[in-house]
Amino acid sequence: MKRTAILTAAVLTLSAMPLQFVKAADAPASGICGDNITWEIEDGVLTLTGSGATYDYTKSDLYWDSVPTADIEKVVIEDGITRIGNYCFNRFWTPYSVTVELPETLVSIGEYAFHNSPRMRIDSLPDSVEYIGEGAFQNTLITKAMFPPKMDWLPDRCYSLTYISEIEIPERIWKIGDGCFAGCSQLRSCIFPDTDIEIGSACFAGCKNLKIRLPNTMTALPDGLFRDCKYLNKVEIPPGVTEIGENCFLSTGLWQLELPAGCTKLGDACFSQTKLESVVIPDGVTELPDSCFAGCAQLKSVSFPDTVTRIGKNCFSGCDLLEDFHLPENDSYTVGYNALPKQYLSTQGDFLILHDSELYLCQLDAESVRLPEQIRKIDMMAFQDAGLIESVVINDGAETIESEAFCNCPRLRSLEIPASVTEIAKDAVIECGSFTTVYGEYYSAAHAFALQNGYEFVPLHDEPELPARVPDYEADTFSFGNNPGLFSGAYQMSDWARAMLLDYSQRPVQTADAAARQWSGSCYGLSSVTVLTAAGILSPADLDPDAETLHDVRPTEDALSVINYYHMMQTGSVTQNIPASVVNLAEAIRLAENYQNGGNPFVLTFRRINSSGHAVVGYGIERGEWEWNGVTYDRRIRTWDCNYSAQADKSQFYFDSSTLHWCIPAYGVYDSGGSDHNAILCIPNDTASLNRFPYFASVPLSGDVDVSGAVNAADAVLLARFVNEQAGLTVTHRGAYNADTDADGLLTICDAAAILRM
Length: 758
What we know:
Layout (H helix, E strand, L loop, with lengths): L1 H7 L12 E2 L6 E6 L2 E6 L2 E6 L1 E2 L20 E4 L3 E4 L13 E4 L6 E2 L10 E2 L9 E2 L20 E2 L11 E3 L6 E2 L12 E3 L6 E2 L11 E3 L6 E2 L21 E2 L20 E2 L11 E3 L6 E2 L12 E3 L6 E2 L22 E2 L6 H4 L5 E4 L3 E5 L5 E3 L6 E2 L4 E2 L6 E3 L6 E2 L4 E2 L6 E3 L6 E2 L4 E2 L6 E4 L4 H9 L2 E4 L13 H4 L7 H4 L7 H10 L3 H10 L5 H12 L5 H4 L13 H15 L7 E2 L1 H15 L5 E7 L4 E16 L2 E10 L12 E3 L6 E3 L4 E3 L7 E4 L4 H4 L22 H13 L7 H7 L9 H9 L1
Parallel strand pairs: 4-6, 5-7, 6-8, 7-9, 8-10, 9-11, 12-14, 13-15, 14-16, 15-17, 18-19, 19-20, 21-23, 22-24, 24-25, 27-29, 28-31, 29-32, 30-33, 31-34, 32-35, 33-36, 34-37, 37-38
Antiparallel strand pairs: 1-2, 2-3, 3-4, 26-27, 39-46, 40-41, 40-46, 41-42, 42-43, 43-44, 44-45
Helix pairs in contact: 3-11, 6-7, 6-10, 6-14, 8-10, 13-15
């Protein structure tokens, strides 16, 4: 195309540009600015003569910075010149208004060609122009928007910061670029044709005197479209608009607004700092985004549907007159910090509680605060700028303390956190200069939180004495372990187990094929089956009909199939491991204590920084004194490690009760409390998640193609259509396994006929 040729023509590096000119006492200045273009200055007129394109320049190497331009009052570009290069007249300085005459041979104007030349004035463009680059006329003395007849679009920032006062856009224009008219403070009106046109983001930003009627063809208002249009007080939004972009009306004079019924999405700060007095949000909107109406000081009424599920942070901050307000009547909405209007907050008493359990804001500013019994979660900024609070007692039953929950409370000294709290963000307390002490239970999340942040930890009770309970390794664990000889170096599974796994896995190819060929151990499967058996979910007889205890189970193909099935549940991303910090160590200790009190063992996995990992079974806690690598530990969690035929001291999990530093010596993994951890502790402690898709939950039913639990004509019809059409029909892996009635590995009409005979 001709335009492509124009864009790529005459591109030379600056090192090849002869930056030469001469100026004698009585002679004109002159020089070269293109392969075939020269210039000279005489009697205040700069004239470019020649043919073809000027050189391209860059914003860091501008040609006219080295040329005396102060006396120039006119620029004449003569016929024969076809292109004005990138940045050619950028930052062209003169104290006078400079008129620019362009030739009828001009085809292309490069990027930022006249940018930042506020005294340069171009009154017309020749009809020959086919291309204008980004920002070509930005910050010039242009007073009229020009649309060369061979162009059907305008580039980004083309007329930004010019003196255009009125615009009438021709019907052929299909696109106006980002910021095209931004900062045109004299712009009063813009007339669009009723044609499809793409308007770029911030197109009219900063056009403070603008009044406009948008084309009815628009379906979205782009980001920042009218930002800082100070006196824009009313805009009729086209009926087909479904989305209003970020900052679209930010800092405008908008006081009247009617959103189309089909509008479903609002962008961040889209109406922030406007003069709106009332707003009705359509039913299709489900989110009121961050800062949506922030700073709307005159807003008195807002109506939004109860299907709204999110009110973003700062959404109604600064809306101090807003009284007609309610929270959504649904069970799933969330509210960001500082989102609610002051008038609404003033009616909510000492504690604003969402969903009957979520502390959004504590408005009680007293020396000592005790939280209500129903609190389960303390939100971000729930305690913010509280000038009097010195201590807070969190209720028993609370579970989560979010990031920055206690922020800028200058007199806050202590928190009492019950053992029910299992999640505390590391930065839950920030900008609280007097804070020193955490009260809590040993090995709780509160204990770990205090150690993480260097706060004093004061136990509420002495460390409990636990009942003596030691696992019977001769009955509670397998007699065989993670032996590649037994497993033949592969994940052995029955066809039925493989079919179930393929149905359940999020990565069936990896699970069934690649992983099965890359056996690297079945430790997770051995550990999880051990835990499921201890919990009574599996029985030893399920694995081996002759087994009374887990130790009696022989490594038969059926037993290995069960073990590898549960191992591959992890590999297939069905059972999720939870990356842990020192906070999660407290959970491991709690589970070990639970075992001492009669509970089940648990799976404990770790992964080294080289990505190799391992899984063991965790049992109870015992006290003592052990030294590994020069560090003394006073507690350890007993484990069964399938890599050891006889349990060894070095394979146990050791920790220090005062620092919560831990290690597993056999694998050289440890946590010193620093930032460079060479292991991640993971604790999938829910036996239901380990058994999410039970191995023995269903029995293969020959012929049950649709996996409905019954064999009938519907199965034969489905199989026959699947075999003959192979389109639009789904037969699951288990269904395909069931359908293969003659076990020849193929699905054929013979199988369908056999199903009909059943």
